[in-house]
Input
Amino acid sequence: MADLIAQTRDYLESVRKPVTTDSIVDHPVTPIVDRRPIRRGPLAALATAVAVGLVGLIAVLLQPSDPEIARSQIVNEVIGGSQENSYYAVGFDTAGILCAETGASFELSKQSQGVCGDTQQPSDPAYQVVAAMAFQAESFVALAGWVPTTAASVTAVYNGEVRRTLELTPIPGHDLYAFGATDDAQARFIEIEIRSETGEIIQRYYPSIGPTD
Amino acid sequence: MLSRSDIGHQEFSLFVTEVEPRLSRALTGAYGLDVGEEATRDALAYAWENWDRVSQMENPVGFLFRVGQSRSRRYRRRRVVLPEVRSDELPHIEPALPKALESLSERQRAALLLIKVEGLTERDAARAMGVSRVTVRRHADRALSKLRDFLEVGDG
Output
C-alpha cells in the first residue's frame, strides 16, 4: 500500500505544473465579496421568481401531506445554490431534499446528506451544505448560499419583521449567494441581510431582484 | 510591483516553497493538470491577498485546498484526464496509475490525496473537503481499495 501511495505522489509530482511566487503575487484576484450574482434582465428575474415561488409552493404542498415530517424538522439543512450554475435547492432533513433548477425541473430526493440533483456528480461543490433556517410558524423560509469569508450571520426579514437570524460558519473561498422562499404561492419574497461579525450589513439581498447595497 | 513589504514577500516565498508542492499535487490529482494548476495559483493568490490571516494557520494546506476546490469551479470540466506516466523517467510507477486515479470519484481522489499522499489528518481533510471525518475516511479507504483492484495489486 505504501508503495502505491509513494507511486501516486511521485507520479503527481512528475506531471504537476509548478506555480512560482512571482506568478502568484502578480496574479489578479477577484475579491470574494464582490463576486456576487450578476444582475439579470427582467425575463431572467421573472424566471427566477417563478422558480423560487414554485419551490415554496411545492414545499407547502409537501408539508401537511406527510405527518411523518414534523414542522420542527423541516428545513434544518439547506443545500447551496449558485446563480453561476443556475441551481437552487431547499432541503428537508427528514424527508429528503427538494431540489429546484432554475426554469427547469424539480426533483425530490430522499437523500439526507446534502446531495441532490445530478447524481453523476455528487461531489459538485454547488451542493455544499452551507446554511439552514427553519420556521415553525405559519410559513417557513429557507436560505442557501455561498458564504463570503466576512459573513457571520444571515437574517431573514419578512414584511419588515426580523423572523430569524442564522449564525454562519464561513467557508473559505465561497461566493455569496442567498435566496428565500416562503409558503406563499404568490412568492412574496423575504429580504435577506448578510452581516459581518461586527453586525454590519455586508449586503442586503432581495431574492426576487438580486442584491442591493 | 509588490503590494506587501519585502519581509512579507520573503515569508510568503518560503511559505510557497513549503506548501505549493503539496497543494499542487492534491489539486492536480483531484481536478486534473490544467484545473489543478489554476486552482493552485488561485488558492495561493488568495493566501497572498490574505497573508496576515493565512500565515497564522496551523493547516494552510487544507484551508487552501478548500479555496482551490471552490475556485476550481470556474475551470472544471466534467471528466478529469490525467497524463500518461513517463515510463522512461519513472519506471517504478505503474503505467495504469493515471487511469486508476481517473476511475475514482472526485471526492475519493481528494480524500486519498489529502490523507494518504499529503498526510493531512482526517479532521483536517474533512474540513478541507467540507464533509465529516467518517465520510472522508470512507472515501479514502474506498479509493485505496479501488486503486488496488484496478491495478491488481495486493494490500501490502
User: Anything to note?
Assistant: The longest strand of chain A covers residues 161-167. Chain A has three helices and ten strands. Chain A touches chain B through 39 residues (CB under 8 Å).
